[in-house]
Input
Amino acid sequence: MITSRILVVLLSAAIAVHAASEAPLARRILHERRRAPPQGWTPRRRADPDTVLPLSIALKQSNLDNLDDYLLDIADPESPNYGRWWTPSRVLETFRPSKASHDSVRAWLSGDGIDGSRIRASKDQSYLLVNVSVAEAESLLATQYYVYQHEDGYEHVGCHHGYHLPEHIVDHVDLVSPTVHFETLRFASHAMRKRSVRPSSSNMQRPNGAPVSKMNGTVYTDAEHCDQQATLDCFRALYDFYPDLKETDRNTVAVVELADQTLNSDDLAMFLKKFNPEAAKALPSFIPIDQLNSTLADFNETDPNIISEADLDFELIIGLLGAQQQVRNYQVGASGSINFLLDSLDGSYCTFEGGDDPNIDGVLNPEDCGTAPLSHVISVSFTGGEDFPPFYMQRQCTELGKISMMGVTFLFASGDNGVASNGDNLCLSSNGTAVPGPGNFLPNFPSTCPYVTAVGATQVDPGKSVHDPESATSPFGSGGGFSNVFPRPKFQHRQVEAYLKRLGNRVAPGLFNASGRGIPDVSANGFPTAVVIDQNYTLAGGTSASTPVFGAILTAVNDARLAHGRGPVGWINPAIYSHWFADAFHDITNGTNPGCGTDGFPALPGWDPVTGLGTPDFPKLVKRFLWLP
Output
């Protein structure tokens, strides 16, 4: 501990001296910093001053202060413009960084000794990139670079203590990398061996807190044993989900798989033959995104660690929707960064070298930019702790909001570790760093982004039936809580305030940020889910199961709207929190989501940070959304 304090003092002194030496050029202001390196990283030595860094400068986008207003204008049920989603070109032109930002940053770089011929720009002027030496970067950013080593042996060049920008440049720049952003190696070793690109911290983990076991004895297909095996018929009975799909040619839905996570087609066929025989030959349409080795579908992988998530996703969503509705498979390759998905959906988000933060996402050349078709519903069963640098999360969340403006609904699993971060089960220490064990609550990102719909998990209690109220999952804590980065949005203010009043002092106020965005928004059954993995009938589950279940239901809602001459529901959060949808969900009032050495939050009447607004009542959801233009 003494060594760490001495190191911080020395680093701070070094920064102060260096910043003072830069004063004649321009007054520098601290732009980003970390209180400490992320878990598992240790500074080892000063970086070689001649090492070349690919410095990437993300320029501030225009009109971001109006993003909420733009979205509410087309997603609030009270707005006369509800459902009038924007075109991609309108989104691009509205948020393109200004020429003033572009010119100001170029002038700063040139004035500080970087020849203009070395500076390159992305096609939409959103990023500037310049290869600089460590010595040049330290001068530009008034910082000091170190070589950090991860406990797994990987090395990384960065400056966790922070970097500075000239005062007149701060308002023109979102973030600069590589700086305070670290890889945290979230995937297991088998994934690292299979990829030629090193795994990255932006690789979300699939929720894995739910117990997994092979099924012994009878495999049920009905809705009579849903406390023991949650089958497709259980979901249909619980949510009155018996859609008559009519617009499958025009309706679109996609499931996202990251890095090496891939479907086994034999498992899907075995599942469908058992639970939905009419769809037994169905397969998703394969849409490769930044695939390094092949752009052809290969659904023959058999490693359970690689196929389990994709098997779960596609078995549930195809099983519920049937063969008539084509389901897309966005297969994000390379490091599996969510940013590569966003790049493929919106070419303006790409950097020209690939990766929106090369230090987090990795670098690809060439990269898929704007090559993937948009889908009305996008289901993502991966999420991770909200412990990335705030500017990085804010820029990614902004992009999710921009794509949502085009009529897209993003569904993200809320996580399986209760009030702790997904997968790593981390909490926040007193100094704000993510650590194992007790501490302040650490929710998951991108689930906390207000422009996505976060999905929690429920269960039929032992000895109960589909006719009884569900509870929050008890074998694992359904992810939920309050963001430490994103403030509470207007659309959920009334419900969250009501919950906090009911909560009282049952959870110590200092453990969570009561003014932050609350998650999840909704829930669906997530345990014990009957699936097929590696040719075995298996009980699994988690929010990675409830998310595609909710995705299937929302896809059927879109089908009904399209059949009535309306558009897709798009960003649903303002609608489902409004009085229009007050009776469209089954309220969940039993259970908690333990984590961080506590019982977490309790589920209470109304919205709560365990199960959100509750589970869907499909006929009422359709009816309410058909009320809207």
Residues 2-22 form the longest helix (21 residues). The chain has 16 helices and 28 strands. The first strand starts at residue 28 and ends at 32. Residues 428 and 434 are 5 Å apart (CA to CA).
